[in-house]
């Protein structure tokens, strides 16, 4: 009997065949149709116009074709991620994904003929065939899209310039076949959600990082005396193995978090059956020497991590290990190190990949090669989706204001995350470090200049698991040094899995700030983890860092260990987490009820019992999570002691055949 997956794929094939038969090359009259506006997007407040783009400089366009079967991937994802559904855990293959999302032959033919009509003879398509890449002079791109490109500079990072157009057009006959063309209107610049305290410091890519002995205070840089720079407090010595002896709030070590979340004594048994990954953008680079120093000090049994990280460069992503004076001034590598410190120290020895995606360098008009000023998330997604083997957990600590991103771009990226989820990947992202928005910057980017809470992207995507940050231990509370991001999307509707939970939270607000947020939007974060004063090495210097950049990889590491329990018992990994989290997994989280996501000159959203828009459902309890996951995967109570290996526990087992890992 054919599965529902195969039936849908057969249906997809029949659609392609019927459209191919019906489709015919456009007539000259169609091709001559005057261009009609396809998309318009205002320049975000963080960018300023420099001048016209050089006409002869090269640019690489990414043309996203309309995918067949709209909503099919998302429907598959909801079914295979729902523990109550018969298809739970039955992930799709890369080939099945391609069959679902590939464009019609008609769309492909029309777009390729349109390119040829404009004298463009060379292009390439991605594996699914839904993206066409072609390189041309900016002047030719302006002719193709009936637009004008300009150079824009980021107001905070003056070295960052991009070539963008405020609007673009297509012939009317292509409007139903082309979803987006970038780089055009998107100013998405994914910044790291990292906050550094003390040490040698800088700013590259992070949010509100202390820079070279300076502290940001309400929009201006304020000098800090030398004795205020961090001198890391000594670790507690010989005080026992209880939480109070291991943890201190201003110096959070890997052992502290492993003890807090119950993973300290767990030894992975199926590390060769999965892998984990982090993402890096804006020329952030994992500095392997710093990783070695970190592990030597805080997790000596994992000191070989730096020798085994799979360092991947995508579209010119920087893998250089030498820090120049410029890189030091920009603190390049700090964000990348923070992610690896947290995920690797939690999930060792599960193999780790670090993706480094190029993008948004200073624009050099004299270059004869296309500048990689396109959208790094699209580049990264295309690369990962093009691989036959994908990690089981991916942590990403980068984001930007949702309204800097055209809706079509956000939807395309979010759809890419859905494809990863359908293949069994847990995508974990940071919620941001600005609460509901930066004070003084909470106006809409639609020309109306209305006051509005500013959502973060991709934190607002329904197909990722978003992580907020906490501090302290018994109990954990929401961070106050910075406000952990939280709120509601203005682009994405509340997903089905949130319906039993989120409306109750919105009702509990009793209309407070209702004019500032979309009560029907996707609420975030989903969960939380420590992210206030984590130990951190950069450029050979020990310091303390925080932000949701620390929280996301920490939570991702715990999920990788839950997957290890599942895999060692012959079960599938968790994949997309949220339907399971909202239905059952929340019972394995510790509720965080103190704090808020203040910003926009308000106190934002409050933490409270149950789900809230500051800490989600709370922080992980490893043992409870894996027990719930085992029960969810087969409907049993998880006590049969079955094992994916030799059937034995890793030692010190309890009556269930599993070790007491806490």
UniProtKB/TrEMBL annotation:
<feature type="signal peptide">
    <location>
        <begin position="1"/>
        <end position="23"/>
    </location>
</feature>
<dbReference type="InterPro" id="IPR023828">
    <property type="entry name" value="Peptidase_S8_Ser-AS"/>
</dbReference>
<feature type="domain" description="Peptidase S53">
    <location>
        <begin position="251"/>
        <end position="632"/>
    </location>
</feature>
<keyword id="KW-0964">Secreted</keyword>
<dbReference type="InterPro" id="IPR030400">
    <property type="entry name" value="Sedolisin_dom"/>
</dbReference>
<keyword id="KW-0325">Glycoprotein</keyword>
<feature type="active site" description="Charge relay system">
    <location>
        <position position="549"/>
    </location>
</feature>
<keyword id="KW-0106">Calcium</keyword>
<dbReference type="InterPro" id="IPR000209">
    <property type="entry name" value="Peptidase_S8/S53_dom"/>
</dbReference>
<feature type="binding site">
    <location>
        <position position="591"/>
    </location>
    <ligand>
        <name>Ca(2+)</name>
    </ligand>
</feature>
<protein>
    <recommendedName>
        <fullName>tripeptidyl-peptidase II</fullName>
        <ecNumber>3.4.14.10</ecNumber>
    </recommendedName>
</protein>
<keyword id="KW-0479">Metal-binding</keyword>
<feature type="active site" description="Charge relay system">
    <location>
        <position position="339"/>
    </location>
</feature>
<feature type="active site" description="Charge relay system">
    <location>
        <position position="335"/>
    </location>
</feature>
<dbReference type="InterPro" id="IPR036852">
    <property type="entry name" value="Peptidase_S8/S53_dom_sf"/>
</dbReference>
<keyword id="KW-0843">Virulence</keyword>
<keyword id="KW-0378">Hydrolase</keyword>
<feature type="binding site">
    <location>
        <position position="612"/>
    </location>
    <ligand>
        <name>Ca(2+)</name>
    </ligand>
</feature>
<keyword id="KW-0865">Zymogen</keyword>
<dbReference type="GO" id="GO:0046872">
    <property type="term" value="F:metal ion binding"/>
</dbReference>
<feature type="region of interest" description="Disordered">
    <location>
        <begin position="191"/>
        <end position="242"/>
    </location>
</feature>
<dbReference type="GO" id="GO:0006508">
    <property type="term" value="P:proteolysis"/>
</dbReference>
<dbReference type="GO" id="GO:0008240">
    <property type="term" value="F:tripeptidyl-peptidase activity"/>
</dbReference>
<feature type="binding site">
    <location>
        <position position="592"/>
    </location>
    <ligand>
        <name>Ca(2+)</name>
    </ligand>
</feature>
<feature type="region of interest" description="Disordered">
    <location>
        <begin position="632"/>
        <end position="662"/>
    </location>
</feature>
<dbReference type="InterPro" id="IPR015366">
    <property type="entry name" value="S53_propep"/>
</dbReference>
<dbReference type="GO" id="GO:0004252">
    <property type="term" value="F:serine-type endopeptidase activity"/>
</dbReference>
<keyword id="KW-0645">Protease</keyword>
<dbReference type="Pfam" id="PF09286">
    <property type="entry name" value="Pro-kuma_activ"/>
</dbReference>
<keyword id="KW-0720">Serine protease</keyword>
<dbReference type="GO" id="GO:0005576">
    <property type="term" value="C:extracellular region"/>
</dbReference>
<dbReference type="Pfam" id="PF00082">
    <property type="entry name" value="Peptidase_S8"/>
</dbReference>
<dbReference type="InterPro" id="IPR050819">
    <property type="entry name" value="Tripeptidyl-peptidase_I"/>
</dbReference>
<feature type="compositionally biased region" description="Gly residues">
    <location>
        <begin position="641"/>
        <end position="655"/>
    </location>
</feature>
<feature type="binding site">
    <location>
        <position position="610"/>
    </location>
    <ligand>
        <name>Ca(2+)</name>
    </ligand>
</feature>
<comment type="function">
    <text>Secreted tripeptidyl-peptidase which degrades proteins at acidic pHs and is involved in virulence.</text>
</comment>
<keyword id="KW-0732">Signal</keyword>
């Amino acid at each position: 009997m054919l599965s529902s997956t195969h039936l849908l794929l057969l249906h997809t094939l029949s659609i392609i065949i019927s459209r191919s038969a019906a489709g015919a090359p456009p007539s000259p009259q169609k091709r001559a149709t005057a261009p009609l506006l396809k998309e318009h997007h205002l320049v975000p407040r963080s960018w300023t116009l420099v001048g016209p783009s050089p006409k002869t400089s090269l640019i690489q366009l990414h043309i996203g074709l309309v995918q067949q079967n709209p909503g099919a991937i998302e429907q598959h994802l909801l079914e295979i991620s729902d523990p109550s559904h018969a298809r739970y855990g039955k992930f799709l293959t890369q080939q099945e994904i391609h069959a679902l999302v590939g464009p019609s032959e008609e769309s492909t033919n029309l777009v390729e003929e349109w390119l040829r009509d404009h004298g463009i003879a060379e292009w390439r398509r991605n594996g699914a065939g839904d993206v066409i890449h072609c390189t041309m002079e900016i002047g030719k791109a302006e002719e193709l899209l009936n637009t004008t490109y300009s150079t824009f500079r980021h107001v905070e990072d003056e070295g960052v310039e991009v070539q963008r157009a405020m609007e673009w057009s297509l012939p009317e006959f292509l409007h139903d076949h082309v979803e987006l063309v970038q780089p055009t209107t998107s100013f998405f610049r994914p910044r790291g959600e990292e906050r550094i305290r003390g040490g040698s410091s800088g700013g590259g890519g992070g949010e509100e990082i202390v820079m070279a002995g300076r502290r940001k205070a309400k929009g201006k840089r304020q000098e800090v005396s030398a004795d205020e720079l961090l001198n890391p407090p000594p670790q507690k010595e010989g005080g026992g193995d209880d939480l109070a002896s291991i943890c201190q709030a201003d110096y959070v070590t890997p052992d502290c978090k492993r003890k807090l979340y119950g993973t300290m004594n767990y030894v992975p048994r199926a590390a060769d059956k999965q892998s984990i990954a982090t993402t890096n953008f804006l020329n952030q680079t994992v500095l392997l020497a710093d990783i070695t120093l970190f592990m030597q000090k805080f997790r000596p049994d994992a000191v070989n991590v730096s020798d085994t990280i799979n360092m991947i460069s995508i579209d010119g992503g920087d893998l250089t290990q030498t820090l120049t004076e410029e890189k030091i001034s920009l603190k390049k590598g700090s964000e990348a190190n923070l992610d690896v410190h947290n995920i690797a120290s939690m999930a060792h020895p599960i193999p780790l990949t670090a993706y480094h995606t190029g993008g948004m360098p200073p624009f050099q008009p004299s270059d004869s090669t296309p500048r990689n000023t396109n959208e790094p998330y699209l580049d990264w997604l295309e690369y990962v989706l093009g691989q036959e083997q994908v990690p089981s957990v991916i942590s990403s600590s980068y984001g930007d204001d949702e309204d800097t991103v055209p809706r079509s771009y956000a939807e395309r990226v979010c759809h890419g995350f859905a494809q990863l989820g359908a293949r069994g990947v847990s995508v974990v992202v940071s919620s941001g470090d600005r609460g509901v928005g930066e004070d003084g910057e909470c106006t809409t980017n639609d020309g109306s200049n209305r006051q509005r809470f500013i959502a973060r992207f991709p934190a607002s995507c329904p197909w990722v698991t978003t992580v907020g940050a906490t501090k302290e231990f018994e109990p954990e509370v929401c961070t106050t040094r910075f406000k952990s991001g939280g709120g509601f999307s203005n682009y994405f509707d509340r997903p089905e899995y949130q319906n039993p939970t989120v409306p109750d939270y919105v009702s509990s607000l009793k209309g407070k700030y209702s004019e500032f947020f979309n009560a029907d939007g996707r609420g975030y974060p989903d969960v939380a983890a420590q992210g206030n004063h984590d130990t951190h090495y950069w450029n050979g210097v020990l310091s303390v860092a925080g932000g949701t950049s620390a929280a996301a990889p920490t939570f991702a590491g715990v999920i990788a260990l839950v997957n290890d329990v599942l895999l060692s018992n012959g079960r599938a990994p968790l994949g997309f987490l949220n339907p399971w989290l909202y239905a059952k997994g929340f019972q394995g989280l510790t509720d965080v009820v103190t704090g808020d996501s203040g910003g926009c000159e308000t106190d934002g959203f409050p933490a409270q019992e149950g789900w809230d828009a500051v800490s989600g459902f709370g922080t992980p309890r490893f043992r409870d999570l894996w027990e719930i996951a085992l029960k969810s995967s087969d409907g049993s109570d998880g006590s049969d002691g079955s094992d994916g290996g030799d059937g034995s526990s890793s030692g010190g087992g309890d009556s269930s055949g599993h070790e007491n890992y806490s």
